[in-house]
Amino acid sequence: MWSARGIVFVLCANALAPRAGHGQRMAPGMGGGTGPMFGAHVGYNFHLDNTALGIQASLPMSRTVAFYPSFDYYPVTGQTWWGLNLDLAIRPPVVQFLYFGAGVNFFHVDLTGVSETSSHLDLISGLEAQMGRLRPFAEARFFVGDSTSFQLVGGANVPLQ
Questions:
Q1: What's the pLDDT tens digit per position in 14-71?
Q2: Which of 7, 85, 106, 133 is such that its CA lies 20 to 30 A from the CA of 37?
Q3: Are 50 and 73 in contact (CB under 8 A)?
Q4: 120 neighbors 107 (Cβ within 8 angstroms)
């Protein structure tokens, strides 16, 4: 059972505990107060001349840097095309709605039993709304490797906290 003295002690300790100052608080966004985010997107890959359907996550590593994995599926009749992107995204502290980054893209094609997976450099840049529970975004991706490809997607993220 809690005594009155114990309750007063806990309340006083909580009131006197150090708090983060305004300049020490993490800003909202990829590395900030929202924490991890998860979402879905739809877009178009201009080199493949095909629609892209996908999911992504944003896992903060610091105030401005996040691990940004994503998966794209390209619906093609009788074939399987997909891409896995493992990126680091940076959100400049002064412009929280903008992010950019780079990573590696693994692109897989299965043509009726014959499959091939290739890797590419993946460059990303995007804009994301920073308010509310649903965070709409628009993103451009440029894949560089044995061939180049450009992809535009739009979607929404939801903070997991």
A1: 444 454 444 544 444 444 446 899 999 999 999 999 999 999 999 999 989 999 999 9
A2: 106
A3: no
A4: yes
pTM: 0.77
Among 113, 38, 106, which Cα is nearest to 72's?
106
CATH number of the 29-159 domain:
2.40.160.20
- The domains of the chain are located at 29-159
For residue 10, count CB atoms less than 10 angstroms from its CB and return exposed for 0-12, middle for 13-18, buried for 19 or more.
Answer: exposed
Determine how many CB atoms are found less than 10 A away from the CB of residue 151.
Answer: 25
Distance in angstroms (rounded) separating the CA atoms of residues 90 and 63: 9
Q: Which residue in this structure is represented by tokens 């649903």? A: 134
Question: CA–CA separation, 55 vs 38, rounded Å?
Answer: 8
**Percentage of the chain with pLDDT > 90?**
63
